[in-house]
Amino acid sequence: MVSKITLSPSKGLEIQKIFNLHLYVSFLLSAMNYLTSPLLNIDEIKIIKGDLETSIDDWEDGKKTAGTQAAKVKNNLQLNRDSEISKRCTSTIIKKILTNPLIKSFSIPKKVHGIMFTKSLEGMEYGRHIDNAFMSSGRADLSFTIFLNKEDEYKGGELIIENINNENIFKLSAGNIVIYPSTYLHSVKKVNNGERLVCVGWIESYVKSIEEREYLFDIDAGARGILAKHGRSEELDLIFKSYSNLLRVLGS
Fold first, then answer.
1. Which sign does the torsion angle of CA 121, 130, 44, 93 carry?
2. Is domain 30-205 given the CATH code 2.60.120.620 in the classification?
3. Per-residue model confidence as pLDDT tens digits over 4-18
């Protein structure tokens, strides 16, 4: 049986600047290397949703930004990236991702790019596809989806992420993000009722390799866990030094 690890905090736990070893270290090479985490608070969600609701004329066919193959299975609406509301909300999302210590440790972000706000109405879906490796905005190492409305506000619309042996289903609470390698096939199930509102985008990492990012994540999480429990030490300085030097070797 293939092991798979979900790197996500325990229910009800707020993300702290120093996160605990036992919550975040994966220990095993997972077949499904993804992370779920709270990202936006209630006030931030309210502001973003309020902005999106006022931009009635800025929604367009999602096929406009899809690749040749993806366009054949894509059926949703997306906010025009050049609109002022899109630019303002995009700036908020990028800032939140780049200042989140858990996401930074997991993804080692060089650039957060290609952000889109998408809407799926009743009957809309996004069939099985894979994201382009290179976009005009950057390389896609990791993909992410941020859920903007409550789970009970729509039926269907689950994000399906596949690996060799199985598929994983995500329908998260408002304000939560799921991050996963862009190399995985994925899809969005048909919305049967209501409206699905999400933000999607990509992360170009300093480290291309999924496995190497995980090794670095484990070292970083382990070192932070030791620091939180026992404080600074000469031995811990060596671990942090090794992490930094490995990042220099593996990074691009």
1. negative
2. yes
3. 334 443 333 333 434
